[in-house]
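Batch job 17 of 40 flagged for manual review because the log was empty.
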Amino acid sequence: MTSQFILWGFPGFIAYYLLQQVKPSRTKSGWDFVVEVGILSLLCFILARGAVYYTSWLLPSLSGYVRCYWPREYPFTLALGLFPIAELLGLTLAFTRSVRARLLAHYHRLITGKTRNFEFVDIFFATCSDLLGELVTVTLSSGKVYVGILLAATEDPNETRRFLKFAPVLEGYCKNDTKLLSYAAFYEPTPDAHHSILVSADQLSSLAWFDWEQFDRFVDDGTITLELKQTMVRPNSR
């Protein structure tokens, strides 16, 4: 490895750092980290060299001025890579991640005929992203069952514990000896989220979109029983 090759790792790391700060993904380690930083370093090098080449072609007088006054011991291309190329690359990749994921999903579906979500590699984040703002069914390992609006969920995949927050509408429980559900409380819907419930992901048994038609069918066939008492008071947490 030459010293200049090693120095080009710094622009790659800057781009990687900004990408992680704006759009966090699971932190890479070992060779995964080296490869990603290496690819970003190569992109920084190509962009910086391209910028120098086309600037010299379009503005030869400016190029001569830079060659005359820029210290020879510091490569001008590397300086461009450190600023602003690395910063622009990291931010551009961060803000276009969703667009790139949709394009990859589109081409993947065309080639394989199968649907795949490239934006999220973790099912927790993919599910929460799809259900955010929707009416969902939340089943806890304790047997408690809630129907509510999903308000928020942990967004950083590097967090050791994950949480989701929802505003409850119905509260019930699943009977241990059967698959029957019984809803015993109804919470008056309000426009604010001050009385939301925060649940740790390790307490979740299931999280799914709530279907009113399916709910009505289960009520009709007796799978779900209703013992509702309307209340204006919501618990702050469970």
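Reviewer: the log was empty due to a logging misconfiguration, but the result itself is present. The helical segments are 3-7, 9-22, 30-58, 60-69, 76-95, 97-112, 123-131, 212-220. Unflagging and moving on to job 18.
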